[in-house]
Amino acid sequence: MEIWSEQTIKDFRRTLLDWYDQEGRATLPWRLNHEPYRVLVSEIMLQQTQVDTVLPYYERFMSDLPTVQDLAYAPEAQVLKLWEGLGYYSRARNLQKAARFIVDELHGHWPESADDLQELPGVGPYTSAAIASISFGEVVPAVDGNAYRVFSRLLKIDADIANTKSRKIFYDAIAPIVDISRPGDFNQAIMDLGSSFMTAKNPDSQNSPVREFNAAFRDDVEAKYPVKTKKQKPIKQMYMATISESNDKLLFEKRPDTGLLAGFWTFPLIEINSIDDIEGQQLNIKPIIHVFTHRRWEIWLVKQDVDLMPNQQYLSPDDWQRLSLPTVQHKLLKALEAFQ
DNA sequence: GACCCGTGGGG
DNA sequence: TCCCCAAGGGT
Fold first, then answer.
1. Do residues A298 and A237 touch, judged by C-beta distance below 8 A?
2. Measured CA to C1', what is the nucleotide nearest A134?
3. Which residue ranges form the domains of chain A, and what is each CATH number?
4. pLDDT averaged per 10 residues, chain A (length 340)
5. Is Iron included in the keywords of this UniProt record (predicted)?
6. DSSP A267
7. Ramachandran region of residue A292, left (φ > 0), alpha (ψ -120 to 50) or beta?
8. Is A298 in the active site?
């Protein structure tokens, strides 16, 4: 691992921020100003989610709920509708809990340090540092996937970024480098660098503004970084989706309030071991495939009569269009249309 | 520390 | 088709 001199650190800050001022993504909507609410919403949406995906969601969200008070007082259903299709839905619920905590418990006074911000639900080590540096000027590194990727290459850090313990190694390595007068811009510049020249695949380090600081590129070992162990493959599961119609309504089922797609409505799903377990009128020839991070669902639509369970309800199109439905349920509805 | 939690895009 | 990736956090 490389250790930079004070002079190198100063040169790096200047080079990085000069590039950021010229070429950074200044027009991103969450960079129009540094209001903590705007930054918080953007940071939560951007967790494990690409910028292009977030943009339309962010615009709608800020338009409908422009202040932390609006979010705190909104019905949860409205928040989930604004989040529909974005995934990781506990983010939306935690975001509203955070807003309610700030409004109700802190009387609208924001926590201003990374340590205090981390008390908010859904706000962890990265997000707290991002808000503290961008909105409140705290000199603290925001260690996200971009920071891992960028600094593992610049400094040739061999720690496995899939390992929780590596976070401290990166934090300690980056902390002395963060620009003291512009910590928020420094952290955002690293993110812009990670999404332009220093990408995960096919990086363009030859033309990177910080090429001369890139030890891995200099030593022609950039492909080794970042060091990251593999994830496990999704588990395959087969399901029967019950299609039951009554007066132009369809039977839906509310999922348990914990676990995958917690509290969301889908067709009643019954796990089966093989296609031979299907009872009723099978509609589709090929299963509908939906892949989550850790699971791969293969779903068969099956028409059948059922006894209504307490967590089930017949819903009209008007009913379910008002609800926030997970993407897998939208897929099932679309597939069902083909048979009607 | 290991596992869970969505979705869409790209090679 | 399959695999990896994308501004992580909660349990």
1. yes
2. C7
3. 6-224 (1.10.340.30), 235-337 (3.90.79.10)
4. 97 98 96 97 97 97 98 98 98 98 98 98 98 98 97 97 94 98 98 96 95 97 92 91 96 97 98 92 94 96 94 97 98 92
5. yes
6. S
7. beta
8. no
CA distance between the termini of chain A: 63
- Identify the CA nearest to A62 among candidates A45, A84, A86: A45
Helix, strand, or coil here: A257? Answer: coil
CA atoms within 13 A of residue A192's CA, in its CB half-sphere: 23
CA A305 from centre of chain: 39
Tell me the CA–C1' distance in angstroms for A47 and B11. 23
| The residue type at A100 | R
User: ∠ CA A247-A252-A257 to the nearest 5 degrees?
Assistant: 155
The residue whose CA lies nearest the C1' of nucleotide B8 is A53
| Complete DSSP assignment for A176-216 | TTS-SS-HHHHHHHHHHHHTTTS-SSS--GGG-TTGGG-HH
